[in-house]
Every structure is written in C-alpha cells, then in structure tokens.
Amino acid sequence: MAIQISGTTVIDNGKRLAEGLVSKYSSINLISVTGNSARNGGLYILTTDGISISLPSFGVTPPVVGNQITFCAGYTGLTAGVTVTPNGNTVMGSVQDIVIDVENAFVVFTYVGGTIGWQVSM
Fold first, then answer.
1. Domain 23-121 listed as CATH 2.60.34.10
2. Separation of alpha carbons 68 and 66, rounded Å
3. pLDDT tens digit sequence for 34-60
4. HSE on the CB side for 83, CA within 13 Å?
5. Quick one: which of 21, 42, 113, 118 is 20 to 30 A from 4 by CA?
6. Distance (Å, rounded) from C-alpha 92 to C-alpha 10?
C-alpha cells in the first residue's frame, strides 16, 4: 500500500521513497529483536519493548566526527524501554548503556569524538 500526502505518493507500494524524493538517512530500519548493530546514517524505528541495539564499533566501519544515528521508540505501551549499548564507545563521556524510555521519542546520537564520543539529543 502506497503512502500519500495531499494526493502525492511519498512511499510507493515497494516501500521505497517515490521517484524524486531523497531521504536524509542512509537506511531506514524497523527493529523488533535484540542483537542488531546500528550503522552510521541510519534511522532505526524500534518496534518492540525491552530490546537492545548496539552503536557501531571501532572495527570495520568506525564512527567519524559528524556521523549521526537516529532511534525512534515507535510504539505506545513502553515499559522496559529500549537499550542502546555503546559497543566500546563512550556516550556523553560514559561507557554505560542508554535506555530510551519515552514513547515515540526521536533520539539522535551524533559522534563528536574525544572523551565524549556520541552526543545525545532529542
């Protein structure tokens, strides 16, 4: 089923952006199970309560200053929250997990490097 706004198709039947439209995200992902790793430039719509997802590690595709990853806790009934694990990075200067526990929140992680690592904004 296509998605239209004011009669203009924005998402086609194949779940792709309609011709001529450009996304600011390199990928858009629905996540419903634990064990996924986020990629730089991705939008992650988290559809299940109590799952976890890891930030990119410094292995194959290390983050560089300015990289962004966006998470959306895209559902209601949030009780346990969604856990974002640093995966060897720091988030706001800490190696602790981050729990997103606000329904329908968009949380942006921007890599700033240094001792801060990933900076978090909503």
1. no
2. 6
3. 777 888 888 888 777 788 888 988 776
4. 13
5. 42
6. 36
Distances (CA, A) of 5 to 11, 12, 15, 34, 106: 10, 12, 15, 33, 22
What is the distance between the alpha carbons of residues 64 and 41, in angstroms, rounded to a whole number? 11
Q: Is the full-model pTM beyond 0.85? A: no
- Name which residue leads in pLDDT, 75 or 96: 96
Closest Cα to residue 48, out of 22, 80, 21, 25? 80
- Please give the torsion angle defined by the CA atoms of residues 10, 30, 53 and 116, in that order, rounded to the nearest 10 degrees: 10
Identify whether the C-beta of residue 70 lies closer than 8 Å to the C-beta of residue 39: no
Among residues 70, 78, 76, 83, the alpha carbon closest in space to that of 33 is found at: 83
Max Cα distance, the chain (Å): 48
CB 74 within 8 A of CB 91: no
- Per domain, the residue ranges of the chain are 23-121
Task: Write phi, then psi, for 36 (nearest 5 degrees).
Answer: -90, 155
CA atoms of 39 and 62, how far apart (whole Å): 10
